[in-house]
Amino acid sequence: MRPLDGVRVLDLSRVLAGPYCTLMLADMGAEVIKVEHPKGGDETRRFGPPFVGSESAYFLSINHGKRSIAIDFKHPDGLALVKRLAAISDVVVENFRPGVLAKLGLGERELLEQHPRLIYVSITGFGHSGDASYVSKPGYDPVLQCMGGIASLTGPADGMPYKAGASIADVVGGIYGAYGTVLALLARDRTGRGQHVDVSMLDGQVSLLAYHAGAVAATGRPPTRYGNSHPTIVPYKIFEAADGWVVIGAANDKFFGNLARLLGHEEWLADPRFASNPSRVENRDALVAQIDPIIKTRTVQDWLETLEQAGVPAGPVLDVAQVMRLPHLRAREMVVEVNHPTAGPFAVTGVPVKLSDTPGRVDGPPPLLGADTDQVLNGLLQLDAAEIARLRAAGAIG
Question: Which is catalytic among the residues 90, 170, 198, 203?
Answer without folding.
Answer: 170
